Write the structure tokens for this entry.
Amino acid sequence: MRLLLVRHGQSEWNATHRLQGQADIALSAIGRDQADALRSTIDEIGPCRAISSDLKRVRDTATRIGAPDAVPSMRLREIDVGDWTGRTTSDIIAEDENAYLAWRAGTGTPPGGEPWSDFADRVCAVIKQEAEAPCANLLVVCHGGVIRGILQRFLNLQPASIIPVAPASLTAIRLANDAGKPNRLELFNYRPISLDFEAPD
């Protein structure tokens, strides 16, 4: 099975570098264009089925890339950032840079937030369940943190070693069919229009 992992397009809060977590923020105009640009790539691959987070920035992205019937799940929501919800990354860093860096590395938790290990457990439980049913290309429309959690658990890539996932980008992982063989990263942060090395969290 191949996992096709798509982060939602730029949201209104991404545009101002505000952490969203599970706040239900809409796509920006740029985010809608980004998602539209990815549709032909997804159409060419031809997913056999699709799942998504239930938050509107993801649901809108799923529709725009050609998967309006993606099955939504609360378990695919972004990590809960607690008291940091709605705050800019620059403000958080100015207040406590070490706390921010620990959170990005998956070793720290914002006040009132969700521990990384709990988050990765809930996300990857969905993927493992989906992997039990045959599917050549499973489309997962979700959030940047969700993709980093999957990369950690399925490829042993630690969050501190992964740059932010670009809005409306495609990452692909080939899950091994045989026990003992490794899962493999096939694609990371692909966008058909432009590269993005400065993607927001």
Q: What stands out?
A: Helices lie at 29-45, 56-64, 89-104, 116-130, 144-155.
